[in-house]
Specification:
By secondary structure, the protein is an alpha+beta fold. The protein is built from five helices and eight strands, in the order ααβαββαββαβββ. A hairpin with a 2-residue loop joins strand 4 and strand 5. It is an enzyme of class 2 (transferase).
Length: about 280
């Protein structure tokens, strides 16, 4: 069950079970509200974006050409609509963490990671390498996929060059499954390492809405794991390191030569570039 809306002391109530049921009901209403709001607000957004296109077509039909400034304004309107749609979808995902329907179970992490790479909009010039061996995880595959996609998306969005490399590897240690997403972008200042995981915190509002890493933090916290960012020891870039419950029966082993600090490199030749270049 997701966290309650506020902290309470159930000892203050005559019947703590009744209060617990009320909290469950409140969380169900919250989930329902998020789903309805997300759906109902996205519908007029789609209409708004369509109207912008109709205005462009009408001007072109009537005057033969859309003035450059008007065309720029209409494109900006559509771009902001896309950003709002993404914001609503991210808020919906954030509200659903820990709810029924995302039941945790053991699964192979690598196949989910590869699926995430395949569906992420990785531009040409960016290459994503996925380690051959990954630990098995015990959590919701849907929520694990959200963690991976947001970390990949973050590495791409905030890269300062048209070409770059993102490496994903994992290992098991201390009863936890560890994953590292390493990029060779501009990196993150040490004093911002914790702030970037806050809700609506972004280093560049033009590139993101500040929910992605907040969602990563909420999901890892929900499972008693962790999330952090460290400097890439090889120079440029950052290491985003997360931990989640290790599947029962899995051995603690160093699958990619990593460590819980996420600062060591995987062994040479351990990465697979199949389907990773865009």
């Amino acid at each position: 069950m997701a966290a309650a809306l506020q902290s309470v002391n159930i000892d203050e109530y005559d019947n703590p079970l009744d209060h617990l049921e009320k909290l469950k009901a409140a969380n169900r209403r919250l989930e329902s509200f998020a789903q309805i709001a997300s759906h109902d607000l996205r519908s007029p957004l789609r209409a708004m974006m369509s109207i912008a296109e109709w205005v462009r077509e009408d001007i072109e039909t009537t005057f033969g050409k859309v003035p450059e400034q008007i065309n720029s304004d209409l494109l900006e309107l559509q771009e902001q609509g896309l950003r709002m749609g993404k914001l609503l979808q991210d808020l919906l995902h954030y509200s659903q963490v820990g709810f029924a329907g995302n039941a945790p179970h053991a699964f192979e992490a690598r196949s989910v990671i590869q699926d995430c790479v395949d569906i992420c909009a990785v531009p040409e010039g960016m290459h994503v390498r996925v380690g051959q061996e990954m630990p098995n995880v015990a959590c919701s595959p849907v929520e694990f996929g959200l963690v991976v996609r947001n970390l990949i998306s973050n590495a791409v969005k905030y890269h300062d060059r048209s070409d770059g490399e993102i490496a994903i590897d994992g290992w098991s240690e201390g009863g936890q499954a560890w994953f590292r997403v390493r990029d060779d972008g501009p990196g993150i200042a040490p004093e911002l390492a914790e702030e970037v995981f806050g809700m609506f915190r972004t280093l560049d509002s033009r590139r993101g809405n500040g929910i992605g890493l907040g969602l990563v933090r909420r999901i890892t916290d929900e499972y008693g794991g962790s999330s952090k960012v460290l400097p890439n020891p090889g120079g440029r870039g950052s290491d985003f390191v997360v931990s989640l419950p290790l599947a029962a029966g899995a051995d603690d082993r160093n699958a990619q030569g990593g460590s819980a600090t996420g600062t060591s490199r995987p062994e040479d030749g351990a990465d697979d570039t199949k389907g990773a270049s865009r």
